[in-house]
Amino acid sequence: MKPVLTKQDFVQRYIAGEFGNRPRTWLYLNKFMSSGYQNLVHVRNMVIGGKTVYNVYPIDVPLIWQSIKTVGIPYISEMGLPDEHRIFQGEVMRGIWGLELTYTTVAKPMRDALRESTKTGKGIIANSLLSYFLCPNSHDWLMILLDRYTNHVVEFTSYDTCWGEISGFNTLFWEVRNY
Asked: I need a labelling partner for 58 at 20 to 30 A (CA). Which of 34, 75, 96, 114 fits?
């Protein structure tokens, strides 16, 4: 597969469904506003490390969109399940000695959760943790992503139930990026 070269490249391919299970996502403000979507969203940024605003009501999206647009390129994703359903999240890649995993079990948005508690696992430990927390479909798809996108990191969140655009998966794949 073609490597992911930029965050913008990733987002275009992400919205097209190339990377598997994800929340509903809108690239354009007018598409979101005309969708009729009524639940909380987060307004994300195509700039690496850029501002992301969580738990935004649809009525407030245009204002948040404009604030992010002044420093980046916004897009919108529905919020995942409530935090109490988060069971495992982090990022994983294949390293020289096998899987290398950075993760947390803190039930908050990933940036906040990793600030609170960051753990690591390598090799068989990483694989065991992933096998335990990811349902079989999600685990299989993660391995496919790691095989297809060598020298890439996969960012994910796993829930205690299946959720997302593709039924039968308990894990959302938020990002695939070249390292």
From this structure: 114
CA atoms within 13 A on the CB side of 14: 26
Q: What is the DSSP letter of 57?
A: -
- What distance in Å separates the CA atoms of residue 46 and residue 68, rounded to the nearest whole number? 10
Report yes or no: 170 and 134 within 8 Å, Cβ to Cβ. yes
Tell me how far apart the alpha carbons of residues 31 and 46 are, in angstroms, rounded to a whole number.
17
Altogether, the residues listed in the chain come to a count of 179
**pLDDT average per 10 residues of sequence, the chain (179 residues):** 92 95 96 97 91 94 96 93 94 96 95 96 98 98 97 97 97 94
Pick the CATH number of 83-178 from 1.20.1530, 1.20.120, 1.10.287, 3.30.470: 3.30.470
Q: What is the pLDDT of residue 48?
A: 84
Give the predicted TM-score (pTM) of the model.
Answer: 0.91
Domain boundaries, the chain: 24-78, 83-178
Half-sphere exposure of 121 (CA within 13 A, CB side): 17
